[in-house]
């Protein structure tokens, strides 16, 4: 099965968030066809979490894992380091006090 273009997936994800009334925006735009995506959840209380896609060998599927969390400034530094290593990286920032990302919903798989 072929993968969706990254820009197509990002657009669909932003649309899904918008429909749910959850503000989100792209803070780094990577390769349109095959860039990796990180999702930063800003809970608007000075704290953030970052999620990355990984492969769950036990269940033979892709999942969104917590990559890191902490104070906003620390997360900013972590994301800057990631961007310096991967120019194709996309970063989506989601702002939600309730901590919703919708990443666990059906239809947001990248394949």
Would you kindly provide a brief summary of this structure?
The chain is α+β, with helices and mostly antiparallel strands and about 110 residues long. It contains 2 helices and 5 strands.
Structure overview:
With 111 residues, the protein is an alpha+beta fold. The chain has a single domain (6-95), classed as Protein of unknown function (DUF1491) (hypothetical protein tt1805). 25% of the residues lie in helices and 34% in strands. The chain is built from two helices and five strands. It has helices spanning 6-19, 72-85, and strands spanning 24-28, 37-42, 47-56, 61-71, 90-95. It has a five-stranded mixed beta sheet with strand order 1-5-2-3-4. A hairpin with a 4-residue loop joins strand 3 and strand 4. It starts with 5 loop residues before the first helix and ends in a 16-residue tail after the last strand. The mean pLDDT is 92.
Key features of this structure:
111 residues, alpha+beta, hypothetical protein tt1805, five-stranded mixed β-sheet, 2 helices, 34% strand, globular
Number of helices: 2
Let me know the average pLDDT. 92
Question: How far is the first residue's CA from the last residue's CA?
Answer: 7 Å
Which residue ranges are poorly predicted, with pLDDT under 50 across at least 5 consecutive positions? none
What general form does the structure show?
A: globular
Instruction: Just name the CATH architecture.
Output: 3-Layer(aba) Sandwich
Radius of gyration: 13 Å
Query: How many DSSP-defined strands?
Result: 5
Element pattern in H and E: HEEEEHE
